Amino acid sequence: MKYYLLIPFLPLAAFMINILLGKEVLRDKAHWPSILAVVGSWLVTITSVLPQVMAGKIINEDLYTWIVSGTFNVSVGFLIDPLTAVMLVVVTTCASLIHIYAVGYMHGDTGYYRFFAYMSLFTFCMLMLVMGNNFLQLYFGWEGVGLCSYFLIGYYFDKKSAADAGKKAFIVNRFGDFGFGIGVFMIFLTFGTLHYTPVFGNVAGIAGQTVNFLGWNVDLPTLIALLLFCGAVGKSAQVPLHVWLPDAMEGPTPVSALIHAATMVTAGVFLVARCSPIFNLSEVAMNTVAIIGAITMFFAATIAITQNDIKRIIAYSTCSHLGYMFLACGVGAYGAGIFHLYTHAFFKALLFLAAGSVIHAVHTNDIREMGGLKKYLPITYAVFVIAGLSAGGFPGLSGFFSKDEIIWSAYASHSSVGKFVWVLAVAGAFFTPLYTFRLIFLTFHGKHRGAHHGEQGGHHGEHHIHESPKVMTIPLMLLAVGAVAAGWVGIPPILGGGAHFTEFLAPSVGHPEFHGTHAEELGVMALSTGIALFGLGLAAFLYLRKTDLPEKIAKTFSAVYNVLYNKYFIDELYNFTIVRPTVWIAKNVLVAVTDAKIIEGIVNGVPGAIGRFSGKLRRVQTGLAQHYGIMMAAGAVFIIALVLLLR
Amino acid sequence: MVPLSWYMVLGAVVFAIGVFGFLSRKNIIIVFMSIELMLNAVNINLISMSHYIQDLRGQILAFFVIAVAAAEAAIGLAIVIALFRNKATAHVDEVKEMQG
């Protein structure tokens, strides 16, 4: 009995049940199948799969022949190695807690069953993505999660901004997935198979080979790695395809927590780590990954400082942390990247769910209308601070260990690119606590600034704000435990730990050899910690003590502020260079010429010609019996003549 | 002894007269009679051939043709009467409702 099959297929069963019976039968009990399924997956992961993998057993089985066509042969198969095991733990743990939280958050919503059906489908696709043992199954899961992301961003599809955000996410991902698809083709062309084991086993043979691609001779491993990275850039919202993630916040908050923080967006990092044998062959590709990651990390962090939408700030924070993960992969420290993926899933899901709890209480996303919520939402406040400290890299918490390992890896890689990304990573360590605590101080401290405060006899006033129900706060508290303690499995040796996490991952992604003295390591750690504390202190100074100062700074440096506030005008740039020309071509060429003239010309022209021809032909049908008789006689004579003459 | 070919020629001539009548006459009654002529031309052929090859099945078939012709005449005349009642005409060229 293959127990691990339960992990992806329980959520699929829940999806089937909900989509078929949810609307009419289950209604407000639609959460039961989904929650039972995902908790079941979690139990199987924790009790059966994880101990096996920790004992050193790697499962790699083909279960079903999916496609056979000539030499092209793909199976549905499962690979469970340490990397997959980590992803399984992350996905099932976060998904379980977020599903439970959603019971409270989505309570009474008209599309309740639809929400849980898509959440289950998403969980299934995500698990197939991480468990597949070949690139096609990875691609299946990859597109499946993209589709579910589209469904769930556009969950409130009667709201135009939500429907547009869903489309944007889907279309922007097309750009990345186009490259990813070609990358998969290139892998098949090169290796003749899509299964991981033979591909990664023979990968050394392609080192140094070149291939003609669009007229250029390019290095084969570089080409494949960069094409695969295209997909990762789209899915994981890295520059220049990051624009969809902030807009994706139109979806319900549990969706943001599960899909756009903890799991789906980290699929790109998973892809890079999974394909590490290919990436390791190409220095160009590795440097690209590191630099794109570092730029995204810095760029998103700076935007986050000026935003006012509680969820968008956290979304930019997610972009930024994903940048850290790619940065780590790019300097060869895949273990550190995956470690950050793992800790990030906990504290970022917690940040989102806590933000959801705030939104649930005050019914707005705008932090300018919040403030002073500390006394109304004590639990939310407490977990928000824990998540913020963890995200900001406060010593002793999860985020600290993983972020420190990344920064140390970047420093210790001793390459010029490594130094460059190290500088940005340290700068990012300053911005992360700054924007996180700006958010916390503006939301929870000071006076309440809600628009409806005190007006109309106060019956919409402050005292109606109350803490979320237990079904929401208990998952928050459990995630807070994760945000504090999840990183303890990877405490570096220098702080008395065993770096168990990266050791555990070594069979999957290797273990980089970094050289540095203990003094250097402690120095780097102290520097980034000091900078993080300085960021926190600055946030406290600006948003607690001198609360009028931020506005003055924004006025003084209005040019910089405007660029950041408008997100570097990237959306406007894309609108101008891509969206508008595309729409223009669609309207003036495709609709006006191709569709109206060519397609409709053919569609209407062919029946028109037939109509005119048959209009002539129908004259033969006179209705006079004797004309028919003449034709019959003439026909009979003709046939008889033919028979006689041709005999 | 009259040779077979004479019968065949007689049948062919009667059939040709029938075809000509069917195609050329306006009056629907004459058209009917022409059809009867063609059927009987066939009967002549059937019987003469039957006698020639000494097989009675041809004559049996001729009886069938006579029976069918009678039925056809009965139905046809009924149609003619119905037509005349509705359109007050017995001319085939004035009936072209089935025109395409």
Can you characterise this structure?
The complex is a heterodimer of chains A (647) and B (100). In chain A, 71% of the residues lie in helices and 4% in strands. Chain A is built from 25 helices and 4 strands. Chain A has a two-stranded antiparallel sheet with strand order 1-2. A two-stranded antiparallel ribbon of chain A has the order 3-4. In chain A, helix 13 runs antiparallel to helix 14, helix 14 packs antiparallel against helix 18 and helix 16 runs parallel beside helix 19. Chain B is mainly α. Chain B has a domain of 63 residues. In chain B, 77% of the residues lie in helices and 0% in strands. In chain B, helix 1 runs antiparallel to helix 2 and helix 2 packs antiparallel against helix 3. Chains A and B meet through helix 25 of A and helix 1 of B.
Give the helix/strand layout:
The complex is a heterodimer of chains A (647) and B (100).
Chain A (H helix, E strand, L loop, with lengths): L5 H21 L4 H24 L4 E11 L2 E9 L1 H24 L6 H20 L3 H19 L6 H32 L4 H6 L8 E4 L2 E4 H16 L8 H4 L5 H10 L4 H8 L1 H4 L3 H24 L3 H21 L3 H29 L15 H15 L5 H15 L3 H29 L25 H16 L14 H10 L8 H28 L3 H8 L1 H8 L4 H48 L7 H21 L2
Helix pairs in contact in A: 1-2, 1-4, 2-3, 2-4, 3-4, 3-10, 3-15, 3-19, 4-5, 5-6, 5-10, 6-8, 8-11, 8-13, 10-15, 11-15, 13-14, 13-18, 14-15, 14-17, 14-18, 15-16, 15-17, 15-19, 15-20, 16-18, 16-19, 17-18, 17-21, 18-21, 22-23
Chain B lengths: L3 H21 L3 H25 L4 H31 L13
| Low-pLDDT regions of chain A | 453-461
Percentage of β-strand residues of chain B? under 5%
Structural shape of chain A: globular
Task: Please state the average pLDDT score of chain A.
Answer: 90
Keywords, separated by commas or semicolons:
heterodimer, A: 647 residues, mainly alpha, two-stranded antiparallel sheet, B: 100 residues, 3 helices, 0% strand
Short description:
Chain A is mostly helical and 647 residues long. Chain A is built from 25 helices and 4 strands. In chain A, helix 1 (6-26) runs antiparallel to helix 2 (31-54) and helix 15 packs antiparallel against helix 19.
